Amino acid sequence: MRLSLGSRLKRMAPRPGTGTGRGLAGTAVIVWTWEHVGVGYWVVKAILAPLLAIFFRPWAEGTENVPREGPAILAWNHMSFSDHFFGPLPLPRKVTFLAKSEYFTGRGLKGLISKAFFRGVGQIPVDRAGGEASERALNTGLRVLAEGKLLGIYPEGTRTPDGRLYRGKTGVARLALESGAPVIPCAMIGTFELQPPGRVLPRLSIRPGVRFGKPLDFSRYAGLKTDRLVLRAVTDEIMYAVMNLSGQEYVDEYAQRAKKRAKPDGTAKPGDGAEDDATMQPDRTVPLDGTVRPDGAAQPDGTAKPGSASPALSPAGEEQAPPAKNPIP
After folding, report:
1. Bridge partner residues of 150 (DSSP)
2. Structural domain includes residue 93
3. Is 303 a domain residue?
4. Which residue among 63, 166, 179, 292 sits deepest, i.e. has the most Cβ atoms within 10 Å of its Cβ?
5. CA 220, CA 259: separation in Å to the nearest integer?
6. Of 320, 157, 312, which is closest to residue 237 (Cα–Cα)?
7. Residue 64: is its pLDDT beyond 90?
8. DSSP E strand stretches across the chain
9. Could you tell me the CATH number of the domain that includes residue 64?
10. In which domain, by residue range, is 173 found?
11. For the chain, what is the domain count?
12. pLDDT band at 15 (very low <50, low <70, confident <90, very high)
C-alpha cells in the first residue's frame, strides 16, 4: 500500500524515551536518546524528502524487511556521497549512522555546515584510526542498539573507488554478535552513476534506488564473538547478501587498499584498511555468473561455515527477474 508524503512524515515522527534499562550483558545502564541528532534528523528529512522525490524520483524495495520496532543493524554498500540521503529516505524510522570523524572536524564556514548537516541527519562521529578509537566506535554502536534503535553502517569502511563491492571489515560482525540484533543487508542502486567520486552535483538523469534484504540471524554463533574466524565468516555472509541485492562485482580486498594503490604517492590515512583478520588474501573478484568460488567455504544458499577464514562469495548463478520498483513518493 502506497502512502502519501504527508502520511509517511507523520509516521516518521520521533517517539520520546528516557530512563534506565538493561545493558547487553544484563547490567543496568542509563538509556540515552541522542538528543543532539533527534530533532534535526526529522527537520532535515521533512525538508529533503519532497525535494529528492521531485528531482530524482527514487525507488525502494523490501522496506517491509526492516523491523518497525526494536534494534537492527542496517549494513549498506557504499557507492556514493548520495547514499547518506537516499539510503534511509524510504524508512519511517530514524537511522543512526556511524560516520567518519572528518565530517565533523572541518574548519571555517564549510566545516560548520558539514558538522551541522551530519549531526542533523543522525550521524555520530567515530575515529577510524584503529585501536582504542575503533573500540570506542564499537561501544557507541552498541549503545545505539541497546536503546532499540536502527544502526546504519558501511562495512566496506569507505566509498567504493570504482563501483565494485569490496571486502567488509569485521566490525559489523562484532556489533551483530555482541548485541544479538538482526542484520538487514541493504543495497544502494545507481548512486555511483548518480554521483561518482569527484563529482559535486548529482546527475538528474539517474534514478537512484535502495533494496532491503531479509534479516540475517547470527544467533548460531552465540558465545563466539571473540573468534576471529567466526567474525570473518559472519562479515562475508553479510557482504554476500549485499552483493546479491546490488548485483555488484565483488573484490576480496579492502577498498582503502585499492584507493591507496590508485594514488600516485601510494599513501593512505592512518588506520585506513586496518583489520584484525589473521590473514590477508590477494585481490580476487567474483563475477556475477558465479564462475569463481574462492576457498569453496560457502554454501549455495549464501550461509557461511563457522571457522572458515574467507567463505566464498559467489551467487547461485540462476537468472531472476527483478521485482517491480515501487517509487517512494
Report:
1. 72, 95
2. yes
3. no
4. 166
5. 35
6. 312
7. yes
8. 19-22, 28-31, 59-61, 72-76, 95-100, 123-126, 150-153, 165-166, 183-189, 209-212, 250-251, 285-286, 326-327
9. 3.40.1130.10
10. 34-283
11. 1
12. very low
